[in-house]
Design brief:
There is one protein chain. The protein is mainly alpha-helical. Among the domains are: 132 residues, no CATH class; 103 residues, no CATH class. It is built from 15 helices and 4 strands. A 4-stranded antiparallel beta sheet has the order 1-2-4-3. Helix 4 crosses helix 9. The longest helix is centred in the N-terminal third of the chain and has 25 residues. The protein starts with 6 loop residues before the first helix and ends in a 24-residue tail after the last helix. The chain binds iron/sulfur cluster (SF4). Iron/sulfur cluster (SF4) binds next to helix 11 and helix 15.
Length: 337
């Protein structure tokens, strides 16, 4: 007997082909979203977007599959209308994390091996061309060939992703479920981002436009660093550029930026606000970390700006002629003076 994905699966993975087919076959018209019966869906979509863009949280609520499929569709249309690239990136990242959490939970809890394999096949193999297998003889670990692993793992800076720290056997890298799913976060993110960017809608229903405008008005303005940026070392300028584009910064770059700004005498609030555009911004966590670096939490040690040699090793150095002779970013500008 062949096994197929259920409707509950489509609610969690609304980007799958079956979900699109369901929406198409339901013969509904976009103008239907102007009817009062659809207001609930539009409000859910608003909440899902606000969770990501304003509260920095992942919307994990799960309703009946048809409500989820339409909420997902409306969320994408709203993001298309909001149009701001940094907001689309941030929303896409939070959607990717939502999928990641559902997928980890399903792969851990699903007892039916055929169903588990079907999920792996549909998402990893068909969608992202990543050959992943569940090895039941090896503690139900997931395995993938080394080159597939390296293609994805090189995006992470943490030491545990280095091949030398992985279990490797017979040309395969072995990973637990969290690690396996984490490897495709960027691909899910790109899938969401491209779905919004490539959406072609000539007329967005009024009720959707109205709610999207409300969100747009609440969005944190894009952070622009007002200091004359020619005074900043290139490594710091680069990190700020990344943040202004809502790109994800590795932890080492966040550490560099925060310690540098604190060394200039910036307040905790000013430093925290620099990270507002980070796609995974969470004010509470960021504030705690910045306070920790400033020596106001934990061991009360004030952390120093990393030396240039360390930043070179972490691929964070973008040295120019003005960096000549300096060993730490805080010395930048000394030569010109
Ligand atoms: S040389 Fe030092 S200050 Fe200049 S970009 Fe590299 S790390 Fe930054």
């Amino acid at each position: 007997m062949s096994i197929i994905l259920g409707k509950d699966d489509l609610a969690k993975y609304p980007f799958l082909e079956e979900a699109g087919t369901y929406v198409r076959e339901s013969h509904f018209d976009l103008d239907d979203f102007n009817r009062s019966e659809f207001l609930h869906i539009i409000e859910r979509a608003s909440k899902r977007i606000e969770f990501a863009l304003i509260q920095g949280k992942v919307f994990m609520d799960l309703e009946k599959y048809d409500i989820e499929l339409f909420t997902f569709l409306v969320s994408l249309i709203m993001m298309k209308y909001i149009y701001e690239d940094s907001a689309i990136k941030k929303f896409s990242l939070f959607e990717a994390i939502r999928v990641e959490r559902f997928l980890i939970s399903d792969l851990l809890k699903e007892k039916d091996l055929r169903k588990k394999n079907l999920l792996i096949s549909r998402i990893f193999r068909e969608l992202f061309q990543l050959d992943v297998d569940l090895d039941t003889k090896k503690n139900n670990l997931f395995k993938m060939n080394i080159s597939n692993y390296l293609d994805r793992a090189t995006q992470f800076n943490e030491i545990e992703w280095k091949l030398i720290n992985r279990a490797v056997d017979n040309g395969y890298v072995y990973l637990d479920v969290d690690e396996t799913v984490r490897l495709i976060r960027y691909e899910i993110y790109k899938l969401m981002y491209n779905k919004i960017k490539n959406m072609n809608i000539t007329k967005i229903p009024e009720q959707i436009r109205f709610h999207a405008t409300l969100i747009k008005n609440k969005l944190i303005p894009t952070i622009k660093y007002t200091k004359n940026t020619t005074d900043l070392p290139p490594c710091i300028k680069k990190a700020l550029e990344f943040l202004n584009k809502s790109e994800n910064l590795p932890h080492s770059a966040r550490f560099m930026l925060a310690t540098y700004m604190l060394s200039l005498g910036k307040s905790i609030d000013e430093v925290v606000s620099l990270f507002q555009n980070a796609p995974d911004f969470n004010e509470k966590i960021t504030r705690y970390q910045v306070e920790h670096l400033a020596g106001k939490k934990g061991s009360q040690t004030k952390y120093s700006v990393p030396a240039c040699s360390k930043l070179v090793n972490e691929n964070l150095c973008y040295a120019t002629i003005d960096c000549k002779g300096i060993t730490n970013p805080i010395q930048f500008g000394r030569n010109r003076k």
